[in-house]
Amino acid sequence: MTQQKTNPRKDIHWADNIAEIVRNRAQQDPILKKTVKQKGYIVYDEKTPSGKIHIGAGRGWIIHDSIAKAMRDKGMKAKFILSSDDIDPFDKMNKDLPATYKKYLGMPFRNIPSPEKGYESFASLYFSQCTQKFEEYGIEAEIQSTGKAYDKGLFNRTIKIALDNADKIQEIYSRFSRKGSNGTKRLPFNPICEKCGKIGTTYAYEWDQKREIIKYRCEPNLVDWAKGCGHKGEISPYNGNGKFPWKVEWAAKWPTIGVAVETAGKDHFTYGGSRSVAIAISDEIFNYPPPYPSTRKEIGKAYEFFTIGGKKMSTSKGMGVSFVGMSDYAPASLLRYLLVKTRPHAVIDFDPIGTNKIILLYESYDRTERIYYNKEHIPNEKEARHEKRVYELSHVDPIKKTMPTQIPFTYAATLVQITGNVESAIETLEKTGHINKSISAMNRKYITERLNYAKKWTKEFAPDEYKFIVNKSAPANKLKKAEVSALLIFRNKLSQKREHTEDEYMELIRKTVSETGIAPREFYKAAYLALLNKEHGPKLTSLIKMIGQKKTAMILTTLEK
Ligand SMILES: [Zn+2]
Questions:
Q1: pLDDT classification of 432: cutoffs 50, 70, 90
Q2: In angstroms, what CA-CA distances link 136 with 315, 394, 396?
Q3: How far apart are CA 411 and CA 134, in angstroms?
Q4: What is the largest CA-CA distance in the chain?
């Protein structure tokens, strides 16, 4: 037997677990305790709106949202704040931009016009494209702007501390740098050049503590992606005149906003990377306990990568799948379920194209739902508790009192193909008794959504074995004589009476097989060939029901010559 690491809290959902850890921290750490008393538990995340935002960031948003929800469920005053790092410099052209945008390189994103109409700025375009989708994903976040936080003077206190301790910050940088100290006198603050408006090109070299003024140069060759104008100036660093470099800013945000939880993707968590430096600055310069999963001494674990379609998609499209484009591949509610169910430390590569991943995800979701409503019993109580919690934390709308009607996804996919459209599929569902006519509007909407997605799935992503087209006439050339006559005998039984039930179809198949002496397997194969031009298909009795008894008989009749 292989030995497994025992985890006594296996039944506890990861978001609940984190909520408890952070609550304990706040009881033990006086600074955090005071912060939480004033502001509640702040779960924080941030993103630079430099272009289309990758789905990896979306994983972080759903993780943070789930932690905040878990905290609120425990009676903790908690909220998720997502800030747009809109004062970051524009440092790279992306392929969606016109060439004229080159002139903005080096400027803060919030000061660059939007490449598309209807948005306040470049930053606003890419950020609000994402946040507009939050409702669909059930993400409840307070949206902030890091640029506005500078404008309002929220960072003034930490800016002064950082500038007063510029040498110590330089020492922390060199401690984590492989090259060691570069002997630079650069201050940990980048002002916006008063002459050209760029923030990526300025070099601040002197801090006048008495006047609280910094001296800077806007340098032509400081970075290779933007050219400074050569201006020399002095300016107050406060109230939005500039910003910290990223690693210092990360650390400064924690005491400024009062952050208790902020995790990030693992690319930030490498040794000597931005998280290590930010932790040291938070601890040594601002004397604030770094947020979960880090402590003053330990970096903790980042969340893992989330990709759709793996390498094949990230390389062919350059940037991979964007958060905004993510719901083209699967419904938002289902993706949320996937991310809530999976521990943050597990890699997710979700490949919906030409695979059965979507089917498995729907089946898993439906099973969780049945467990939640006690419609499916599983002997392992811990697992049942865990599944119920996954359902609660992943559910986008308020949870209903009764379980929504489940239409198995493969059935929905077959049905919508055979009947040709969603409306006829619903009629068939009524006929077959899967749903009754008095079903609630909300339930009907739920089923319609599933059928619509199933239709899209079969068109765009489904492997061939799930794709069906009903024949207009049966391909006689693919069938043996004995098969044709068995199918015609079956046809006679079909057309004699009223509309049969599936059980009755089964009985008719049995009779046909025994009367003709054809092997059952051969009969089924022949029937699928006649109806779908395939050797396999969905359950035959159910297929006949979907095609309709009359139409099935008509197709088989084409075998008569
Ligand atoms: Zn300049």
A1: confident
A2: 28, 12, 7
A3: 30
A4: 105
pTM metric for this prediction? 0.93
Distance 106 CA to ligand 1 centre (A): 9
- Taken as a whole, the chain contains a residue count of 561
d(C-alpha 555, C-alpha 539), whole Å: 18
What spacing in Å lies between the alpha carbon of 339 and ligand 1's midpoint? 44
Residue 240 CA, ligand 1 centroid: distance in Å: 16
As a whole number of angstroms, the distance between CA 429 and CA 437 comes to 10
Section 168-172 average pLDDT: 95
| Helix, strand, coil % in the chain, rounded to nearest 5 | 50, 10, 40
pLDDT at 321: 82
Segment 351-354 long-range contacts (CB within 8 Å, at least 24 positions apart)? 351/308, 351/309, 351/310, 352/308, 352/309, 352/457, 352/461, 353/309, 353/329, 353/460, 353/461, 354/461, 354/462, 354/463
For residue 93, the CA-to-ligand 1 centroid distance in Å is 19
CA of 181 to the centre of ligand 1 (A): 28
- Does 7 score more than 50 pLDDT? no
Task: Give the count of beta carbons closer than 10 Å to the beta carbon of residue 509.
Answer: 20
Distance 220 CA to ligand 1 centre (A): 8
Cα 136 to Cα 120: distance, rounded to the nearest angstrom: 23
> Across the beta sheet with 232-235, what order do the strands follow?
202-208, 213-218, 232-235
Domain residue extents for the chain? 409-466, 476-557
Tokens read off for 207:
């801090």
Element containing residue 3 per DSSP (H, E): none
Question: 229 CA to middle of ligand 1, Å?
Answer: 4
The alpha carbon of 67 and the centre of ligand 1 are apart by a number of angstroms equal to 43
Determine the pLDDT at residue 108.
98
CB proximity list for 379: less than 8 A, separation 6 or greater: none
Query: Nearest-CA neighbor of 358 among 432, 274, 259, 454?
Result: 454
Question: Which amino acid appears at position 30 of this protein?
Answer: P
Cα of 194 to ligand 1 centre, how many Å?
Answer: 7
Q: Which CATH class is domain 476-557?
A: mainly alpha
Question: How close is the Cα of 121 to the center of ligand 1, in Å?
Answer: 20
The answer to whether the Cα torsion of 354, 358, 364, 367 is positive or negative is negative
